Amino acid sequence: MATKGPRLLFADDKGVVYDHPRLLAAARSGDDQFRPEERPAPLPEGGALCMLPGRRPVGVDPATGETVTLPEVTVEGRTFAPHAVGATLPPGWTRALLPAGVRAPTRAPVLPQWAYTAAGLGPRGPVVWALHTDKRTHWDPRGRSGADLRRRVERRLAKSHNPIYQQLSRCALEWSCFTAQNTFLQRDEGAIPSSSACNASCLGCLSDQPAGRPPASHQRILRPPTAEEMAEVAAEHLAKASGRVMISFGQGCEGEPLLRWKEIAKAIRLARGQTSAGSINVNTNGSSPRALAALCDAGLDACRISLNSASEDLYTAYYKPHGYVLGEVIASMRVAKDKGAYLALNLLTFPGVTDRQGEVERLCRLVAEVGVDQVQTRPLAIDPDLYMDLARGRGAPGRAVGIRGLIEALQAARPGLVVGNFARARGERGTAKAAS
Ligand code: SF4
User: Fold this and answer.
1) Across-strand partners of 19?
2) Distance in angstroms (rounded) separating the CA atoms of residues 122 and 42
3) For a pocket test of ligand 1, which of 113, 196, 208, 322 has the largest count of ligand atoms closer than 8 A to its C-beta?
4) Among the atoms of ligand 1, which is closest to the Cα of residue 306?
5) How far apart are CA 255 and CA 197, in angstroms?
6) How does residue 436 score in pLDDT terms, banded at 50, 70 and 90?
């Protein structure tokens, strides 16, 4: 019986996208390519189709249900080697499957840092295999850029020579970072980049990439700010912002904030000396339980610890930690809970690795034992082949249960666990309970 489903998309060298007259869309999980069973979602507003240069498209033959690689195609009499097409997602969505494709032997560059998502053409337009995991609208891209934002940035820079505002002005206007924009719009979660150094070398680091790889998507802050400079930005935002008020140390444009715990602790005390409003959070790799304890003692009330796996070998291969191990990251999680801070995990998800049965079991055990409050599902923004070359044969084995299966397992392991993409402000923090 003929198979039905969204049609295969492919692109030419100029990035013009076509749909195949016969083949259906395939998808990928780890090294497996197949016809996706899950129902796709319409491509959400703020998402976009993207080309994967040098990856030949893989589709599904509706007559046999088998996957087929497309090395060449003829469109309106022009024959060319097609490129696979995927999609990028707006905030609030989690990728469920990767785009299918086969790396061509030549002219297949390392892909820049995007969370490539499986896509196809449905009866009403482009579709994606992704989950809408956070429906709150305050991260909606609409109404964020434009004249008003630019005016507020200029007004702030005229009023203050604080180097943090200088850095954030580029983040807000050039790299469209929402937390940086929030700092100028005085709403919700604001940003305080604090560290120019890091004690890890993540394969997918957003602010530092080795030569020969696509450039990092953000330029790292060059001079670390003083405690007083950080306190100025913190107090201003906490006291005057509206909405889900929070400030976060640890941004995409910096290294590891815990390396500057003394200055950050002083900044927190100075800011709390001026206002008790809002929440103070740190996004961190969790490398130092002692440093995190000091921040909590200074007044930090939330932290988000980044993780790609609860397996030592897979964690170490991705983060390449200098002078710390996964055990200390887990100890930091326990410190946060012992100190009463709201604990979120920034779980870097990758279909076919993070959702392997064995990996899911280890993550569920960790979330339940430590008492994690929230898991932020963060599709790992990286060339899928680059990550698979690292993850193949590492971590716990098992068949992939799907990203939806991963989320359901985590919530079963820790009833009340919040699974979403965005930080929770003080008034939004439910209390997850231990599994019965
Ligand atoms: S911990 Fe953060 S800043 Fe450090 S290498 Fe990893 S992604 Fe980059």
Assistant:
1) 9
2) 8
3) 208
4) 1
5) 5
6) very low
Prediction pTM value: 0.95
Of all protein residues, the one whose alpha carbon is nearest to atom 7 of ligand 1 is 205
Top mutation candidate among 195, 196, 199, 205 for ligand 1, by most atoms within 8 Å of CB: 205
Domains and CATH numbers, the chain: 7-132 (no CATH), 147-428 (3.20.20.70)
Please give the residue that has the higher pLDDT: either 143 or 290: 290
Buried b or exposed e, range 16-49, using 16+ CB within 10 angstroms: ebbebeebbbbbbbbeebbbbeeebbebbeebeb
Question: What is the per-residue pLDDT across 246-266, written as a single tens digit (0 to 9) for each?
Answer: 999 998 889 999 999 999 999
Structure confidence at residue 105 as a pLDDT band (50, 70, 90): confident
Which ligand 1 atom sits nearest the alpha carbon of residue 208? 8
**Cα of 391 from ligand 1 centre, angstroms:** 18
Contact 418, 345 (CB under 8 A): no
Sign (positive or negative) of CA dihedral 326, 331, 337, 340: negative
Check if 115 has its Cβ closer than 6 Å to any atom of ligand 1.
Answer: no
| 67 phi/psi in degrees, rounded to 5 | -80, 145
For ligand 1, atom 8, name the residue with the nearest CA: 205
Q: Tell me how crowded residue 265 is: count the other CB atoms within 10 A of its CB.
A: 19
What's the gap in Å between 74 CA and the centre of ligand 1? Answer: 44
pLDDT digits (tens, 9 = 90+) for 280-308: 999 999 999 999 999 999 999 999 999 99
- Do the beta carbons of residue 38 and residue 130 sit within 8 Å? no
